[in-house]
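Ops channel
N.P.: pipeline sanity check, posting one input/output pair.
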């Protein structure tokens, strides 16, 4: 059974039970109230009848006048002598009420003890309401008066009231059914919408949105599901991009390894020739070594990137002096810069920072190496300045520069602005990706500015030591 039907039947049954209970209680209450009022009224009437009968006169017309009194009062009357023997009965209508032929001793004692006050015995199982009273002045041998009437006469008004209640109950139940169905539809409509939308999202339709403009819990739930769908859309797009990058990554790494392997294989084939001169042998051996080193650098860079992706202790921070790292860079690249006729300006003033000295040295090594490769004249500069609690490290050159179309993807793995020239210069295509990973591992970002023909500027920040 659907939740809408369950809610509708729950409302209907609860309200029908409530209406029926209230109606039944109302009928019983009114019935008891009418009986109680009837007893009170009969008690008053019996006292009035006792006074009336006592004043009828003790003559031949006594019974005639008593019969008229019975018709006027609406009660069936009976008179008894002092021994409790019935003398006569006077009906108020054609229907006779069975009355005792003789009063019991208990009734007579109770009536005497009440000192002319009426006695109304309670008998819930009897259909007749009876009242006894003693007469102040016995007439024609009559000492006791009994008045009786059917309880149905007292309950007569309740028949009309009962039908009024029943009609109201049936009308209320009809309204309850209609309102319950409407409420069930109103309550379950957003549930159905949310269920359908959730199913669509589960089936892969992450563009599905729930249009529920409500300020209650359903509206909040719909908003949450829309946010979830939006997050799923973003995650799905990100997964697609990641899958595409992974596909490209494997294609690139296969290509990067295949080329040097082919070169090595070709060099080894040439070395197997019998009449190969020593000069050419040295040339092919050098070529094979160079390609082997290239593959070694490739796997070294891949290992660094893999550690960044999976090792939370990729960066081991400590306090160190940038001047020591700068001196190493100066020693490594002074000769290379001199051979190309370039000025290598390395800032070597003492400056303590917090970071991984080995990783920062690798960053500067990659950036200075790239700057020297792509600068044909002018200078390559390494400087660092302190401001507040940050140290900004800047690597700047006057090289060929990078066009704007390449800047956004410059740090992607295996991305090259000029693939042919990059391979000629021995690059692996991972250097800048490694730089970005190391700097992000330090909680910072690597920035770049460049203009074609005017040079390139990289910079990043480290915490001051």
């Amino acid at each position: 059974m659907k939740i809408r039907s369950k809610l509708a039947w729950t409302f209907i049954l609860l309200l029908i039970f409530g209406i029926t209970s209230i109606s039944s209680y109302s009928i019983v209450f009114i019935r008891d109230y009418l009986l109680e009022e009837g007893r009170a009224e009969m008690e008053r009437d019996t006292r009035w009848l006792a006074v009336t009968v006592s004043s009828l006169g003790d003559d031949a017309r006594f019974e005639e006048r008593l019969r008229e009194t019975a018709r006027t009062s609406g009660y069936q009357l009976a008179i008894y002598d002092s021994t409790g023997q019935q003398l006569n009965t006077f009906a108020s209508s054609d229907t006779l009420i069975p009355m005792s032929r003789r009063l019991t001793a208990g009734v007579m004692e109770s009536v005497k003890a009440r000192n002319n006050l009426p006695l109304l015995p309670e008998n819930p199982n009897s259909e007749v309401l009876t009242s006894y009273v003693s007469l102040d002045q016995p007439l024609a041998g009559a000492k006791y008066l009994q008045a009786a009437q059917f309880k149905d006469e007292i309950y007569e008004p309740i028949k009309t009231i009962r039908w009024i209640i029943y009609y109201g109950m049936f009308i209320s139940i009809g309204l309850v059914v209609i309102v319950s169905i409407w409420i069930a539809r109103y309550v379950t409509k957003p549930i159905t919408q949310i269920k359908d939308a959730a199913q669509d999202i589960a089936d892969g339709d992450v563009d599905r949105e729930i249009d529920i403009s409500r300020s209650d819990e359903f509206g909040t739930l719909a908003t949450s599901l829309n946010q979830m769908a939006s997050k799923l859309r973003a995650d799905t797009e990100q997964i697609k991009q990641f899958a595409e990058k992974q596909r490209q990554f494997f294609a690139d790494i296969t290509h990067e390894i295949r080329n040097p392997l082919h070169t090595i294989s070709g060099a080894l084939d040439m070395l197997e020739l019998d009449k190969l001169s020593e000069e050419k042998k040295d040339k092919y051996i050098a070529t094979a070594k160079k390609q082997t080193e290239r593959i070694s650098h490739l796997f070294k860079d891949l290992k660094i990137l893999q550690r960044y992706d999976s090792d939370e202790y990729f960066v081991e921070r400590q306090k160190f002096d940038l001047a020591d790292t700068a001196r190493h860079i100066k020693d490594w690249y002074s000769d290379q810069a001199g051979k190309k006729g370039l000025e290598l300006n390395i800032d070597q003033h003492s400056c303590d920072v917090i970071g991984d000295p080995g990783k920062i040295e690798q960053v500067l090594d990659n950036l200075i190496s790239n700057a020297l490769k792509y600068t044909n004249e002018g200078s390559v500069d390494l400087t660092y300045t302190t401001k507040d609690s940050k140290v900004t490290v800047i690597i700047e050159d006057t090289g060929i520069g990078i066009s704007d179309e390449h800047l956004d993807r410059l740090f992607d793995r295996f991305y090259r602005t000029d693939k042919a020239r990059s391979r000629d210069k021995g690059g692996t295509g991972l250097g800048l990706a490694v730089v970005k990973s190391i700097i992000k591992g330090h909680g910072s970002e690597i920035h770049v500015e460049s203009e074609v023909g005017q040079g390139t500027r990289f910079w990043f920040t480290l915490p001051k030591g």
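N.P.: looks fine end to end. The mean pLDDT is 81.
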